[in-house]
Amino acid sequence: RMNVPLQPQWIEAAVPHLLKSHYQDVHWSKRQGRVSAALNITLLGLPLVNARKVDYSKIDPEKSRQIFLKEGLAKDQLSLNLAFWQANRHKLKQLEEQEQRQRQAGISIDEQTLAGLYEKVVPVNIVNQAGLNRWLKKDPKKHNKQLTFTLEQLTQSKSNDVDDYPASLIVKGFKLNLSYAFAPGTAEDGVSVEIPATMLSQF
C-alpha cells in the first residue's frame, strides 16, 4: 500500500460543486500590471486552498477596471513609461507648483476625477496594463493623443494670476530664484529667496 500526497487541484477538478471560493486582499500590483487577489477555497467548510495569488480581472472585470483606472493610471502605478503619462504628469507637476506658489490647494483635479477622464477614453474591455499596451500599439499616435489631457481638463478650480507669483526676482541687479512652499505650521512655509554664498555680503 502506498500513500500519495493529495493535491488540491485534483479535488477542485473532481467536485467543483462542493467548493466555495473567497477572495481577499484585492489590490493593484504594479509589478504584475494587474489587479491581484488572494483566493481561499473550502470544501464543506474545510480549508483546501489558502491565499493562492490570482488575476482578479478574470473574476470581476468591472471592479478590476475601476481599480486599474484609479490605482494604476491615476496614481501613476504602471511599470511602463508611456508618452501620454509623461505629458499628463508634466502638466500636473505645473499645477502642483502653482498650488505651492499661490498657497491654494485644490487647483489640480484629484485622483478620482483623473480616473474618470481616463475612463471616458480607455475602451471598456481594458482592465490591466497589458491590455492598455496592446491598445496603444494599434495606433500609438492617435491613442496617446486621446489620453493626453489639457491643462484645463486637469484644473479643478480657478487660480489667481500666475504673474503675481514670479519664479525669480531682480534685486540690486542680481536675479534671485524664488521657491514656494504651502506648508502651514512648518519652517518651510511661504516664499524663500535663494542667495548664492558669494553674494551674501551684498545683502
Please explain how this structure is put together.
By secondary structure, the chain is of the alpha+beta class. Helix content is 36%, strand content 24%. It has helices spanning 8-14, 61-74, 83-102, 111-121, 129-138, 140-146, 151-154; strands at residues 19-29, 34-43, 46-55, 168-171, 174-181, 190-194. The strands form two sheets. The chain has a three-stranded antiparallel beta sheet, with helices on one face. Helix 5 (129-138) crosses helix 6 (140-146). The N and C termini lie far apart (95 Å). The model has no long low-confidence stretch (mean pLDDT 82).
> In angstroms, what is the radius of gyration?
26 Å
Contiguous low-pLDDT stretches (5 residues minimum) are none
Major sheet strand order: 1-2-3
Please write the string of helix (H) and strand (E) elements: HEEEHHHHHHEEE
Structural class: alpha+beta
Question: Sheet bearing the most strands, described?
Answer: 3 strands, antiparallel
The global form is elongated
Report the sheet-strand fraction: 15-25%
| End-to-end separation | 95 Å
**Overall residue-averaged pLDDT value:** 82
Q: How many helices in DSSP terms?
A: 7
